[in-house]
Amino acid sequence: MLVFAAYSMGGSTSRLYSALALPLRSAPGRGRSPAWSRGRGGARRPRRAAEGVRGGAAEPPRPAPPRLRLPRRRCPLSPPIRVMQWNILAQALGEGKDDFVECPLDALNWAERKYLILEEILTYRPDILCLQEVDHYFDTFQPVLGSLGYHGTFCPKPWSPCLDVERNNGPDGCALFFRRDRFLLQDSACLRLSAQALETNQVAIVQTLRCRATGRPLRAAVTHLKARSGPLLVCGDFNAEPGEDVYRLFSTSGLGLDSAYKRLSADGRSEPPYTTWKIRPSGESRHTLDYIWYSRRDLRVDSVLDLPSEEQIGPGRLPSYSYPSDHLSLVCDVRFQDDPDRLQ
After folding, report:
1. Helices (H) then strands (E): counts for the chain
2. Which residues fall within 8 angstroms of residue 58, CB to CB, at 6 or more apart?
3. CA dist list (Å): 71 to 68, 123, 263
4. What is the C-alpha separation between 176 and 184, in angstroms, rounded?
5. How far apart are CA 150 and CA 158, in angstroms?
6. What is the CA radius of gyration of the chain?
7. CA-CA distance, 249 to 62, in Å (whole number)?
């Protein structure tokens, strides 16, 4: 299967992440019903590492969680593979370049925003995590997720726009994490992508994993790339709507790829109306740009996390106090087509 996709932290921060991990150990197992919900409204919030992050202002209530709409399945004997795709918004870009005119400035504060990002990741505990616009890998994501059993790889952009922002934290790039108790790493490469024989600023991480439970290989990559046949997952922010050439390239590639989030539509053929929604000085923009592609011949989708409604997102759109990025996270459970559990 193919999936595209170290500094110590202070004591108070480490205690926060320990508190975050505790409720997960008693959370429902991976054999739970596919009717799981987005935890933005229902997940227990961790205690802040420092008081007064927002200057004493009351935090707006977090929206109620949307529900999954796929049919209920029998509880499988072995767990599916949970995949999470998320453009988390580079901190330097959020504060220095993106001009979110309706977003409160303190909602972009990294000391606050990183907790919301980590909370969402730890709420769903993906087996494979694909992130883009990561500019705090070494001081946040690698140490925290590494301590919770994840193996991580980071590939920076060669000409990251973050470097143009004063007091930046280094270049942004892609990060690929997987749970060490689920997979073994067999091969890994960081690639710089090209278009028409010209190098671009885009990168990809390509890894070959081996599932500990089944012994089967799984090839994974963040962002698009030419791939070999076999079980395949391709996750990323492609900056392309469903009607654009990049989308058509994947949907008609000959690799037999399908988009997991089409499962949320009534006919199973349409993408969601948005995965990013923001307001800038030039106006309001709502687009579908993020996808989890999977090979239909080799994989099936068991469940997909619904997206919040317009009312739940709120009039200020993204990012906000409740949603730490200008993109929404995508989460799905997939399974090998010939998994014997499907015969139960």
Report:
1. 6, 15
2. none
3. 9, 22, 11
4. 14
5. 25
6. 19
7. 38
pTM: 0.78
Provide the pLDDT for residue 101: 87
Percent of the chain scored above 90 by pLDDT? 58
What gap in Å lies between CA 166 and CA 211, rounded to an integer?
Answer: 43
How confident is residue 60, by pLDDT bands cut at 50, 70 and 90? low
Per-residue pLDDT tens digits for 14-49: 333 333 443 333 333 333 334 344 544 433 333 333
- How do residues 62-98 score in pLDDT, each as one tens digit? 655 454 555 445 545 567 999 999 999 999 999 988 8
Quickly list DSSP for 109-158: -HHHHHHHHHHHHHHH--SEEEEEEES-IIIIIHHHHHHTTEEEEEEE-T
Cis amide linkage into residue 319, ω under 30° from 0: yes
Q: What are phi and psi of 87, to 5 degrees?
A: -85, 110
Identify any residues that bridge with 153 across adjacent strands, giving them in sequence order: 176
Tokens read off for 177: 């994490």
**Rounded Cα distance, 4 and 292, in Å:** 9
pLDDT score recorded for residue 2: 46
In the DSSP assignment, the letter for residue 51 is S
d(CA 45, CA 217): 37
* pLDDT tens-digit series, residues 220-240: 888 734 445 578 898 999 999
